[in-house]
Amino acid sequence: MVMIAESDELFLGERKRDTSVVFTAEKTLKVKSVFSDPYHEIELTGVFTHPDLKILDLDPVIIRHPHNACRESVHTLKSMIGEKVRPGLMKEVLRKAGNQGCSHLNTVFKDTIEGALLGRGRRVRHLLAELFPGISDAQTYKLALTFRPELLNSCNAYNPDGELVREVLSASLPENMTFETMQELEEYYEALNSSDAGERATMGRF
Fold first, then answer.
1. What is the tens place of the pLDDT at every residue in 11-30?
2. Largest Cα–Cα separation, the chain
3. Residues pairing with 60 in the sheet
4. Which of 13, 71, 77, 185 can bridge 38 by disulfide, Cβ–Cβ 3.0-4.6 Å?
5. Which of 91, 98, 85 is nearest to 31 (CA)?
6. Cβ-count burial of 128 within 10 angstroms (0-12 exposed, 13-18 middle, 19+ buried)?
7. Cα–Cα distance between 21 and 113 in angstroms, integer?
């Protein structure tokens, strides 16, 4: 038997998790999450409405697995199609799956949900930067609290007595900013783009 010296290290494995999100031509959020370790390789692609994050599709693929029964768990996520991302959603998937689920598949599902939240936030930041060039971080965060008031006091950064929130609340909104929801922001952006496209098309005729 070969003994391992106290100064030696034995590499035992690595677990990787990766998530990417895109805003599609259909104006949805498409999220792909990947999970891998020495025993598993799982991919999950989810499609969500924007901005209310209703789950339109979930496509789980278990590529590597330690047991044949693992692959049989993929159907448990299909029951979540039609649900909206909300507090308690992970408890719901565990309740629906019961003992037919897979903890690793649920981990990938959680990553996909967080990817959708990330994508929505990034999309809103993109719209604000397009519509209000030079918008400050404080103004951006103030709009985030306007769109999502539940963020206030949700973590240490959003502590009402913290430095960030004090700075955010003292910031003024961009001039002519009247949107109260992310949907209104999207609709304004689309209308503006449609108007610009129409003007360019008209100018192109002359």
1. 999 999 999 999 999 999 99
2. 87
3. 44
4. 13
5. 85
6. buried
7. 11
| pTM for this model (two decimals) | 0.87
> pLDDT digit string (tens) for 148-160?
999 999 999 999 9
Query: Is the preceding peptide bond at 51 cis, omega within 30 degrees of 0?
Result: yes
- Count helices and strands (H / E) in the chain: 6, 4
Apex CA 19: angle with CA 168 and CA 188, to 5°?
Answer: 50
Residue type, 94: L
3-state helix, strand, coil in the chain (%, to 5): 50, 20, 35
- If 0-12 CB within 10 Å is exposed, 13-18 middle and 19+ buried, where does residue 29 land? buried
The terminus-to-terminus CA distance of the chain in angstroms comes to 87
CA pair distance 126, 129, nearest whole angstrom: 5
Would residue 82 be called left, alpha or beta, if left means φ above 0 and alpha means ψ between -120 and 50 degrees?
left
- Say which residue the tokens 């278990």 belong to: 62
Of 91, 92, 52, 73, which is closest to residue 182 (Cα–Cα)? 52
Supply the pLDDT for residue 201. 43
Element (H, E) at 39: none
> How far is it, in rounded angstroms, from Cα 191 to Cα 184?
10
